[in-house]
Amino acid sequence: MPALKPGARIAIVAPASGSPVAADEAVQWLLDRGYEPVPMPATRLRMEAPYDFLGGPDEARLDDLHDAFRAPDIGAVWCLQGGFGSWRLLAGLDGALIAANPKPFIGYSDITALHLAIQARAGFVTFHGPMLAQDLLAGKAEPTESLAFAMLTGAVGAGSWIVPPPEFAPRALAGGRATGRLVGGNLALISALMGTPYEIDTRDAILFIEDVNEHPARIDRMLAQLRAAGKLDGVKGVLLGNFTRLGLRMPDEEAQALIEPLLMANLRDLGVPVLGAWPSGHGDPNLILPLGARVTLDTAQGGLQLEQAVVR
């Protein structure tokens, strides 16, 4: 997949919820960093109730995605924000068009639906990473921005380690080292797409999961669903990202530590390395991850090593 070049044109898309004000601010943010922003039409739309959770009609949001991938002069497709509604686009997604035009696609949360669909239909690496409105305009802590651009431009390549700064160090919940394809994203979206053509493929994989606004009981239920569906069988390792706003009356930092015993109760018997409190997802910072890439998870190093170039 081509690396993001200096001064490249970057399409801003809103496949889920939208924010016309944030779209305008994202344009300036990219201009300030030397890129040429291309806000797609639906980024400035908003549906009326009861569909006011969508950034525009399904057809408009889908057309934006297809047009962004189709255009040869677009160097990356960057999601404005998550929210709700990406799954509504999957049936109409033109996998052949996207497969023929690989380029960096960046987003997370509800965008997990598109990550799973693109990997199922197009087969190239996509990036679970900071979005323009939710993270970059919000000024998430470093290395949220710098790592994203380093990976998209190829400065972080094969053999490179992704290791969070000491103040955001992850925790080894089950020690070890394992290599596999990095797959996953938002646990609720992974769960929602079970039984569809876009369900997650976890064979010989490093599974990454994170979530927000989910009570521990629902997290437990979704993990039980993955187990019952055989999606934990053959997993080589697990990377646990941010689990925030859990509906508990305590700060997120305390709740994150509290949720780990529940997560491990569902994972411990797998006998694979588990790295917890990894700063990716709905937290601060939000480190970019290359979904579909071959990586090594090493709990002693507290990080991931890229086993392949993700852009060239």
Automatic annotation (TrEMBL):
PANTHER family xref list: MURAMOYLTETRAPEPTIDE CARBOXYPEPTIDASE (PTHR30237), MUREIN TETRAPEPTIDE CARBOXYPEPTIDASE (PTHR30237:SF2)
Domain LD-carboxypeptidase C-terminal: start-end pairs: 179-297
Occurrences of domain LD-carboxypeptidase N-terminal (ranges): 10-129
Gene Ontology BP term (one): proteolysis
InterPro entries according to UniProt: Carboxypeptidase_A_C_sf, Class_I_gatase-like, LdcA_N, Peptidase_S66_N, Peptidase_S66C, S66_fam
Protein name in UniProt: LD-carboxypeptidase
A Gene Ontology molecular function term of the record: carboxypeptidase activity
Species of the source: Bordetella genomosp. 5
CDD domains, per database record: Peptidase_S66
The family this protein is said to belong to: Belongs to the peptidase S66 family.
Active site (record annotation): S109 (nucleophile), E210 (charge relay system), H282 (charge relay system)
